[in-house]
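Shipment paperwork, digital attachment
Item: protein structure file
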Amino acid sequence: MKKTLVTLLAIVPCLAFAQVKPSISKAEKALREGKLDEAKSIIDATVGSQEFMVDKKGQPTKNAAKAWYLKGLVYFSIDTTKLTQWKSLSADPFSEGKDAFEKAYAIDSKSPNFFNDNTGLPLLNVNVNNILGYNYYNKAIVNYNDKGDAKATFAYAEKTLYFIPKDTSILLYAGGVFAPSAGETDKGLDMLRRYLEAGGNLPEVYTMMANIQHEQKKDNAAALKILAEGKAKFPNYRDIRLIELNIYLADKKYDVAKTMVEKELQENPTSADNYFLYGQLNRELGDMEKAKAAFKKVVELDPKHFDASAELANLYWADAKKFKDEMGKLGNTKADLEKAKAIDVKYVEALKTYIPYIEACEKLSPDDVTVLYSLLNVYGDLDDQPKIAKVKKKLKALGEDVN
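Attachment content:
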């Protein structure tokens, strides 16, 4: 019994010594040194200390707001750290960090700073928010580009906007790209509206909102309402009118689509964009000759209009492909071989008509892999070895595995 008592007495001082004491300075130091377990232990003890956080009158002490703010920084660091040994320190570090920040602001909403930089100089809260926000946003970008995890990407984007809620570039990208990818359509629309409220002024916001309504929510009436708002503000932005046309075509409102396009063409007959719309309309309606004529007019008005050149290339390739498909259906009989020779002559002539348009696409976009493979295909069918070699060289330079 005596031996047991002595052993217990020996343990008591160790327990007392191991007890973590409240200290903002020590928590800061541990945080700066990247010792997140130590920083968490100290700051948890600090905010959990009634004596440290509350004065004799029952009011927050002068250091209470700073303590809560520092707790937020510690937990946000746990949430964003790359080191796996710190990940298990909290089940939901962002929520705990956010709660700590809110408590700091509730106690003191006027102080411009609660934290100092590594040199000891005050670091403004707004600057801290920018640092934290872009830290989370970088994680969103990495997740989106490298991991393809749409849900995680959007979660990081939402966390970003907690710190910098009026950053228009992030609101636009998070609402128009990340949210739709994650299936968060309502949140995406809300972010895009917030973009406009924050002073964002790019016309793309209207096409993004309209696409969410049209493609994901299947609400064409809402999409058209957004597009009308966008057209009033950006009457010359082609993509708004393109989506409007596509909605009419999807709803099989061909008369409405035709009236819309022809009216705009009549009002501005020298607009390349209006002729482009007219070309798309006729292509969808199956009048390929009118479509070709419209796209040719676009190129005449705007020789650098890649989309019109691509449309023409596609239309003329479709003409040539009919002959190629026809030859592919023939057998090896003498009669079939004779037919194939006759059809091949027509195929070659069709290719010669097609080539200038696909070559025009290459001039406008020299590194477009799709265009280069199209050229490789047609040069191969014509057995033009010098041009085949030239295209293969370009594709290899772009990292393509071409034999």
